[in-house]
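Record 1 of the preview.
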Amino acid sequence: MAVMLPAAEPIEEVNDVDPQALPARLLGSSKPMILRGLAAHWPMVQAAQRSTEEAIAYLKGFERPGAPPVVATVGAPDIRGRFFYDADLQGFNFRQEKVPLGVALDTLRKYLPDPAPPAIYVASTTLDTWLPGFREHNDLWLGEREALASIWIGNRTRIAAHQDVPDNLACVVAGRRRVTLFPPDQLANLYVGPLDFTPAGQPISLVDFAAPDPERHPRFAEAWKHARVAELAPGDAVLIPSMWWHHMEGLEPFNVLVNYWWRQSPAWMDTPMNALMLALMTVRDLPPEQREIWRDVFDHYVFRPGEATAGHMPEAARRVLGPMDENRARELRARLLKRLNR
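->
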């Protein structure tokens, strides 16, 4: 039986931040923050505040002739915007179509007055590829960070709680969104689905936030005690640190978000998810005694390295136990590929 959730705690807010001089302490924060009005000066935001028609026209003004199609995720009206699995988690409740960006925008415009439209979402579309010139007038300065800027366009959609490895600064530029965050340590209470079969690349919580079922997901009540929620209007932004769980909900018939992703690690570092997948294949199903041995091994070399790890060796002899760099990572990757492909 579904239950109504009590009000969650708000996300901490920071005001009066200069969008052209975002402080490093903020961008490197391990706690989420709401930055009200951060992108309010953008022409896109101002167009959206005047009307949805102006917002759509503004975006279409940057379309590049001959640009590749975007991927539009589409679900029937009865999914009520929730992109998810089918009943037995063997498939999905949506389809994906490749269409020109302008066609996606025209379709969203067509359904603006419809009280029960199909769910439509154009996710994670690289701004510089599909809307060249947009960032000349609508952008933030993130210092020396090599951030990937993407745009997300849709109607009233719900994106299940998931984690991302990069830090994320997400700016609402049209419509309104509700963001619900959980700290990374709530993993066990969010009932995460398959790791290797996901709706959009990242494992997701199986809890329906609009109608949580305490019988199927009793631990979610504990997760909700740690939830942080905010509603964002055009111009508002949210900083989502690496690995914080986030559920995103579009609240209007037309919603646009621009986000920036970056990692606080060198570009040559691989994603830890690959290490997790390898550990599932090689460690998880060992006999319990052997698995405990490997827990100690990982602590010694990975999670708690120190003088006892390699301090007894000359620096030149430490190889992968020494500081990792791009060349050493390349050599190690080649060695791993050779072993995996044997």
